[in-house]
Amino acid sequence: MATRAFDTRLETIGQVLAGPWRAPVNMLLEQSYDNHVSLHDDAMAQKLGFKAGPIEGPTHYSQFIPLAEAIWGERFLTEGCLSAHYRNMVMEGEEVRAFIEREPGEDHATIWASKKDGTEVLRGTASVGSHAPPTALDLRLNELTPLQQPVILRDLKVGHRTGRTPIRMDPDQHMGDLYPFSLNQKLAKITEPSPWYSAADNPWGRPIVPWEMVSVLVQYVAREDRLPVKGPAVGLFADQEIRMIDGPLFVGEDYEIEREIVALSGSRRTESYWTRTWVYRPGGSTVIATMLLNQATLKESYTPYAKEFGELYPEA
After folding, report:
1. pTM, 2 dp
2. Model confidence pLDDT, tens digit, residues 177-203
3. Is 124 in contact with 175 (CB distance < 8 Å)?
4. Residue 141 — φ and ψ, nearest 5°?
5. How far apart are CA 63 and CA 7, in angstroms?
6. Helix or strand run (H / E) with residue 47
7. Which CATH number fits domain 11-312: 3.30.420.240, 3.40.710.10, 3.40.50.11720, 3.10.129.10?
8. Coil, helix or strand for 266?
9. For the chain, which residues make up each domain, given as ranges?
C-alpha cells in the first residue's frame, strides 16, 4: 500500500480548510538573468524600493497541495489546477497560511494565502477536471486592458510561438542561472514535504515533480525562447496558473514544451507579457500539462525607459 501523500495538519474553519503557518525560504538569492542579479536579491530589491528580496511566487503553491489533495484526493494530482494573482510579496522570515473554500461537491474552490498581519499574498481558484468553471486567470485574461505605448516589450507580438524545447528534471540537476538549486535542495526546504516527491511508493510507482517545481521545470529553459524583450530590466511573476491534464509530471522524465505569447498588458509601473506553456511527451501531440504566466517587467529597472518612451511617443 502506498504511503500517504502528506502529513500536513489541516484545520477546518466552517467551510474553509486551512493549512499551518509556514515560513518559506528564498532560494533565488543567487538568481541572475541578463547578466545581473534579480529582484530576489536583497540589494536589487531595495534599489527598486522593496524591503528585501521576495520569496518566488510559486513557492506558495506548495502550501495549497495538501488542501486540494484532502478535498479531491489523487484526482487533484492528475487533473488539478491552481490559478492565482500574486497580490503582495513575502520576505524570508515572514509566515504565510493557505486557505481553500469549496462548496460541497463542487469541482472548484476559492484559494487565498495571508500573512499574520492579514496582508493577502495571493488569491485565485483551485479546480479539477476539464468541466470546472473558468479559472481565476481565465477571468482575468478576459478583463485585461491591452498594453498601450510599450517600450520594453515593443517588439513582442501576441501569437508569437516558440518551437519545441526538451526539458527534464533529475533529482540533483542544477536548474541553471534562473533557478540556482536542484530538486533535492528544494525538497530539503519545501514547506510541505511528501514521500511522493522523492520515492516510488505512490500510485504511479515513481517520484512526482512538486507543483511549485513544475514552474521551474518549464521556465529554466526560458532563455532559449529568445524573446525580444528590451533589457537589462527586472521582472517578477504577477499571475500564474499550473494545470495538470494527464498528470502528474515525473522526476527524471523527458518532456517537451512549446510556448506562446497570449497577451500583453501593463500598469503604471510595469509592462507585462503573458505566456502559455504546453507540456508534451517527446514527439507527442497530446498536451499533458499547461502553465499560464504573467511576467511583469518594472519600467524603472530599465535605465533608458524615459528616453526611449520620448523617442517612440513624442506626442504623449
Report:
1. 0.91
2. 788 889 999 999 999 999 999 988 899
3. no
4. -60, -40
5. 12
6. helix 42-47
7. 3.10.129.10
8. strand
9. 11-312
